[in-house]
Amino acid sequence: MANKRYACIGLYNPKSPENVGSVMRAAGCYGVASVFYTGKRYERARDFVTDTKKIHQDIPLIGIDDLKKIIPLGCVPVAVELVEGARALPEYTHPDRAIYIFGPEDGSLDKEIRDWCEDVVYIPTTGCMNLAATVNVVLYDRMAKGNNTRSGPQFGRETDRT
């Protein structure tokens, strides 16, 4: 049986090629299928490669005009943004198939984008994190929760140990 779990990343107008390179590295570490980005700022600097593992050879990094138009079939769009009404990541149950949408290093996701996302989550911190760090934390949380997804078995205490 094929693995039902699937994740990809959408970057809204990323600024820093260093952070995009680090996002690609995280994508490789956590089994992300593809990374999409919008905007022109990264395109101008994309030749500055920080992807030392050359993950871009295995995971597509695709420039697009509109993240909403490329949501893979069956994927739940999840905005990652520190806004009122967002769910705290530690309490979040990840969808089996998700596209995680991240804002730029020097701004936020537009409300218009958050509105078409099914879920909005935030990382409870005392300060702002950079783009690459945020992507790493979200993907680690997804991996650490393992089968604790909407359709998978839920974490619980194992009472039958021998």
Automatic annotation (TrEMBL):
It comes from the Bacteria. CDD domains: SpoU-like. GO terms for cellular component: cytosol. Residues 9-140 form the tRNA/rRNA methyltransferase SpoU type domain. SUPFAM superfamilies: alpha/beta knot. One of its GO terms (biological process) is tRNA nucleoside ribose methylation. Belongs to the class IV-like SAM-binding methyltransferase superfamily. RNA methyltransferase TrmH family. This is tRNA(Leu) C34 or U34 (Ribose-2'-O)-methylase TrmL, contains SPOUT domain.
